[in-house]
Amino acid sequence: MEVYPLIFKPILKDRIWGGTKLTTQLNKEKLTQTTGESWEISTVPGDVSIIANGIYKGLNLNELIEKFPDEVLGYKIHKQFGLDFPLLFKFLDAREDLSIQLHPNDELAKKRHNSFGKTEMWYVMQADDEARLIVGFKEKSSPEEYLKHLNDTTLVSILDQVPVKKGDVFFLETGTIHAIGAGIVIAEIQQTSDVTYRIYDFDRKDVNGNKRELHVDLALEAINYDVVAAKKEYNSVENRSNEAVKCPYFTTSVIPLNGKFDKVKNDDCFVVYMCTEGEFLVHYKHHNFEFKKGDTILLPSVLTEFQLIGQANLLEITIE
Fold first, then answer.
1. What is the model's pLDDT at position 236?
2. How do the residues of the chain divide into helix, strand and coil, expressed in percent and rounded to 5?
3. Is 198 annotated as catalytic?
4. Residue 7 belongs to what H/E stretch?
5. What pLDDT score was predicted for residue 203?
6. Which residue ranges in the chain fall short of pLDDT 50?
7. Residue 206 confidence (pLDDT)
8. Measured at the alpha carbon of residue 273, what is the angle toward residues 247 and 260, in degrees to the nearest 5?
9. Is residue 61 classed as helix, strand or coil in its secondary structure?
10. Residue 277 region by backbone torsions, left for phi larger than 0, else alpha for psi between -120 and 50, else beta
């Protein structure tokens, strides 16, 4: 395999709640005035990422993995997931509140949808004044209480609304009711899954006057009715991988890059970098590969010794 940092053509999604910040802040092409998501690395059926650079330009990620499974994924990941790429990476621009929703765990998702569950995390890249997220219940709840408030359109009153600022990290285990609030740009890391149970959408209608589908019955068994501690604290030491979230599905660290950072890793797993601020380059075997804010890059598992150089803030994601 020809080894180098891979970048992909963003898969842009129009959303009723989207805006224009993916273009103005992250240099993405403008799809519409309501572009809500940029899928950076995806193998969700129908939305498989296309390589945008180097000798493999034009291949999709699944095709590259089929050719070089151990080299791209790593032996450990290949053994665990076969030829499936296990993670999905996105940037989101919420001009308006997203729907209140949740995701099923692996067991339910497999039984109902033949899919992975959807454990995910958020890194807040930008937040307007008074922006907030909805994450879980204020106090321990129950199916009966939840349904009463849902039917009375007072669900928001029993949910925890958390003010946010740039740099905040939230870890969302499956079953956690959540919503990204208006005025927030987020980097999202999650299991490869597009299974979402939407339970309340503020009675919004689309351009055709239709309300979006809700999944109240499906959600009932999937909800975690306990209080959750979703916000995660982490260190911000320069030129170091500061662990922010570690779970069986992924480990995410924050790297405030200021100058040069030598990296040596094993070949068990790929690593992904999402650039949330600044510019940087990857120096590998006498070659420099340049990247900027809004770029998401995949380093194949066999790319084990390299340097990160520049002034940037990076999210580093791998599976341990």
1. 97
2. 15, 40, 40
3. yes
4. strand 6-7
5. 86
6. none
7. 79
8. 115
9. helix
10. beta
Please provide the CATH number assigned to the domain covering 6-232. 2.60.120.10
Residues linked to residue 8 through DSSP beta bridges, in sequence order: 51
The pLDDT value given to residue 204? 85
Query: Strand pairing of 178-180 and 271-284?
Result: unpaired
pLDDT of residue 194: 87
DSSP 8-state symbol, 108: H
Neighbours of 235 (CB within 10 A): 11
Query: Which residue has 């590998």 as its token pair?
Result: 284
Residue ranges, CATH 2.60.120.10, the chain:
6-232, 242-318
Contact status, residue 135 vs residue 228, Cβ threshold 8 Å: yes
> What type of residue is 240?
R
The matching CATH number, chosen from 3.10.310.10, 3.40.50.1240, 2.60.120.10, 3.40.630.10, for 242-318 is: 2.60.120.10
Q: Which residue is catalytic, options 198, 204, 212, 240? A: 198
CA dihedral 58, 282, 28, 271 (to 10 degrees): 70
Torsion 255-257-262-263 (CA) sign: positive
